Amino acid sequence: MMIRNPLYLLGVQLLLATSLHAADFLSPAEATRLIERANQAAQQTSYQGVFMHQHDDMVESFRIIQLVEGGSEQERCESLDGPTREYVRTGAQYHMFHEDTPLNLVLDRAATSRFFPRLTHRVGDVLASYQLRKLGRDRVAGLEADVYQLEPRDGLRYPHRLWINEASGLLLKSMMLGAQREPVETYTFVQLRLGGGFDKKLLKPVNPVHPVLLDSSVGKPLQGGLESQWQIRDLPPGFVLQKQIVRTPQGDKGRKVQHLVYSDGLVTVSVFLDPSVVQLAPGLARQGSLHFFVRPLPRQTVTVLGEVPAETVKAFAAAFTPR
Amino acid sequence: MSAKLTAEEQLSALMDGELAEAEARRVLAELQASPALQVSWYEWHMQQDSQHGHPLLSPGFMSGFSARLSAEPVVVAPQRLRPARTGRRLLVPLTAAASVAFLGVALWQGLYRSAVPVQAPLAAVSQPAPATVVAQVDVDAVRAYLAAHREAANNPLNGGEPLQVALQPESK
Fold first, then answer.
1. A–B: how many Cβ contacts below 8 A?
2. Do B126 and A105 touch (CB under 8 A)?
3. Cβ within 8 Å, pair A57-B83
4. pTM of the shown model
5. Which residues of B touch A178 (CB under 8 A)?
6. Separation in Å, CA of B166 to nearest CA in chain A
7. B97 touching A, CB under 8 A?
8. Per-residue pLDDT of chain A (323 residues; tens, 9 = 90+)
9. ipTM value > 0.90
10. What is the per-residue burial (b if ≥16 Cβ within 10 Å, else e) of A231-267?
11. In chain A, what residues touch B87 (CB-CB under 8 Å)?
12. How far does A164 lie from chain B, in Å, by closest CA?
C-alpha cells in the first residue's frame, strides 16, 4: 500500500478512533452475562473437538472431549503433537499425565478455568480493566461466531479478542493482541462437534494418568518475610497477587529468588526479587510483545516481565522499594 | 519518531517493520548506498535466523542481494510485527528446550480474592541468602526468567507452554 501523504494517515487514524468510539460497547451487565455464559458453556456442554494453541513461535494442538450427562461432567484432553500430555477430569477431580515433566503437580485452581484466556478473576473485576465491545461476525471451526474485543481501559495491557458461538455460548477462539494489534497468543478450535453422541471410550485415558492436587488455599499474605523487606506501593491498577513462588537457580542452592505472579484476570506479570546482583543489563528490553525490566538495587535486583506494554513493567519495577 | 536515531537503529527498526512508509523508503535508499549498512542488515538477519533455527543464507547471498537491491527501485521490507520501539531487543528463543535454571516451589497459590493487593503484615521469617553473583550469560539468565514466568502464567490444562521448570520441593 502506498501512502504518500502523512496527513492522509492521520485522517485514517482519526476515522478509526471515531469509529471505535461509536462501536457497540456492551454494558457491564451484558458483558458479564456473555462471559459468564461462555465460562459455563465451556464446562457444561458436551462436545468433542480439536483446538490449537499458538504462542509466539510455538503451535500445539489438542483433542478435547467433554460429556455432561445427568449432572456429571467428564472431560479428556490430550496433546496431539510434541511430548504426550493428557488430563482427564471427573467433576472437579483431575488426573494428568505429562511425558516431559516429573508429575508432582499442584495445580493452581485458577488454572482450571475453562475459559480459554485463563480468566482468573471474577468477571466484574476483569471488566474494571477492560471494556467489551462487539466487532462483528465470523466463522470458526465451521460454526458461526460473534466476535468481541476486550478493550483495555488504560495503556497498561493489550486487547483480547473473543469468538463466541451464540447458539451454544461456547468460546470458539480467543486471541491476545500485541501493541500493533498483531496476534500474540491464540486458542482456537479447528474442529468442533457439539453434542454428546460419541463413543464413551473416548473419555478413557490412554496414558498412565495420576491424580493432581488442586490448591484451594485462598489468598494468603506474602511469605518469607517479604513484607518486612519490601515496601510495595502503587502497583498498576487491576493487578492482584496471584501466587508467590520461591525459586532456586540451578547450581546455586543458597540463592532464593522470590517470584511474585500478578494478574489482572487475563494477563500475567512476573516480579522476581533476587537477593543478588543479576548479570543482566539494567532497564527495559523486549521480545515481541513481552517486556522485560531490570532494576538493580544495592545487592539485589528487581526483574519484571510480562506480555504487557513497557509502562506496565516499569511501573511494577518502581512499585518495589527495599525497606 | 526521534530524529536522533543512528542509521543502524533505523535499519533495525526497518527490519522489525516499525518504520512509516516514507521513512522506510529513506532508510532503504541509505541501505542501497551504503555497503556497511548492507553488511549489518545481512548480519542481523543471519543472527536472527540462526537464533530461530532457520538455515543460514549462503555466503554468496550478499553479492546477489546487493545486485538485486540496486536493480529494484522498491524493496519490500520484511514485516516483523513488533510493538513500538522501546528498549533493547532480546534475542532469546523461547521454545528451544531451555536449560532449566530455576527450580521452584509454590509457597501458596490461590484463587483471586480481593481487588486490593495483599498488604497484611506478617511475622517476618526473613532468610536473606548470601549475595552471591552467579556468572550466567545473558541469554541463559533471561531464558530462566522467561521459563519461570511462562510456567507460572500458563495453564497446564489448556496446554500452556511445555513445562520447562519442574515444580519440585526445595531441598531444605
1. 302
2. no
3. no
4. 0.67
5. 81-83
6. 6
7. no
8. 444 555 555 555 544 544 445 468 999 999 999 988 988 888 889 999 999 888 777 788 889 999 999 888 899 999 898 888 888 988 888 888 877 666 555 666 655 565 555 566 778 888 999 999 999 999 999 999 999 999 999 999 999 999 999 999 999 999 999 888 888 888 899 999 999 888 999 999 999 988 887 764 445 666 767 778 899 999 999 998 887 888 887 767 778 888 898 988 888 899 999 888 877 778 888 777 888 899 999 989 999 999 999 999 999 999 999 98
9. no
10. ebeebbebbbbbbbbbbbbbebeebbbbbbbbbbbbb
11. 283-286, 291-292, 310
12. 18
Phi-psi region of A185 (alpha: psi -120 to 50; beta: other; left: phi over 0): beta
Interface subset of B 38-57, CB within 8 angstroms of A: 52
CATH code of domain A23-215:
2.50.20.10
Fold of the B7-71 domain: Arc Repressor Mutant, subunit A (1.10.10)
B10, B23 Cβ separation under 8 angstroms: yes
- Rounded to an integer, what distance in angstroms lies between the CA atom of residue B90 and that of residue A290? 10
Q: Is CATH 3.30.70.920 what the domain over A226-322 is classified as, yes or no?
A: no
Question: Does the beta-carbon distance from B149 to A270 stay under 8 Å?
Answer: yes
For residue A222, give the nearest of A266, A274, A277, A262 by alpha carbon.
A262
* Residue extent(s) of CATH 3.30.200.100 domains in chain A: 226-322
